[in-house]
Amino acid sequence: MGKYKRLVTLALTSLFILNSGCGYYKSDVAFNQEERKPAIKIVKNNLEITKDKKPEINESNINQVRTNNDSVAEPVKSAVNQELVEFKGNIQHIFFHPLIVYPKMAFDGDYLTQGYNDWFVTVNEFKKIIESLYNKNFVLIDIRDTYEAFEVDGRRMVQDKKLMVPKGKKPMIISIDDLNYYEYMIENGNAHKLIIDGDGVVKTYSVNEKGEKIISDDNDIVPILDKFVEQHPDFSLNGAKGVIALTGYEGVLGYRTNELKSDKFEEEKAEAVKLIEMLKQNGWTFACHGYGHLDAKKIDIKRLIRDTNRWKNEVEPLIGPTPVYIYPFGSTVNYSDAKFKFLMGNGFEIFCGVGPEAITEYKKDCILTDRRPIDGISFHYNSKKLMDLFDCGKVVDKCRPEKY
Ligand SMILES: [Zn+2]
For position 404, what pLDDT does the model report? Predict the structure, then answer.
């Protein structure tokens, strides 16, 4: 890597991690509610969601129903015969970053240690969390199954959709932000990339503290959840797994598809595409996380347009169109803002921010939703609020720095 690029990487790294991680909040209350306050009524978990009045629709002006024209996962053999009932509460949505595989590298006292302690979760912590979610009767669902789209007089509209879940189960969406395996990540204890192993299974490739190359069906969320759902098919509705949110400035999933002039570009791209197809077959879906991980609220519209176009040119051809936009830094844009209209005009219709509650607001033509962060900050400051999901006392890894 050239010196310049390394500097840029370091600068971006510092920007992400030290200023606000991939994050979003400095305290429990800051979040992004300031700008969303007029539109959203904060409701407690498992109460009725807030939504707009549905548009008047009659048979004659409906052209199209459902949004899931993308590949749909094969149903997992399982408790399929279980009775399905309509779920009427608030759909939970939590998110993670790529997991810390080698804590000694993440918590080595360098300038990124605090960022890792703030924004990341270890492999062991993640395993305990999904075990708890499973025991608490959550079931993974596809984010695209939370709404339906249709046209009214040529205008695309969306509305809440009746969600049927096995009796006693509570729907859960999991998303993973920045599963790009940035340079700083592979130097600080995350895996290096996802690969398809010879046996056709998606695994992680990583290099441990001793410099040994490791291929494993463990070590990050994708293989761990794939394996968990295989063992517990009733943890997933119709094989759904999670949403993978990708930027583009250092490629995707560990493949440097951003280096358009590299000799290896075609090879990297082909491998990434093959992997993405397999991930889709396995129940994973994808979201836009901006190209350069910019703060959509702060930048002007010209910069947002450039950034989005670059994502559409480099990342969308790999993953296909997606209706899901996951704001970098959780920094949301107002529904009335021209920037928001621009994003909607580019096919996005589910907009994910970050908040203390997983609230969802159905507008006439889009959906605004908040995801709950699962990371060191929430373990430290929000442990009580997380009790509906897991007990931090039983989850938090001893390998974390003693002093927060
Ligand atoms: Zn991010």
Answer: 77
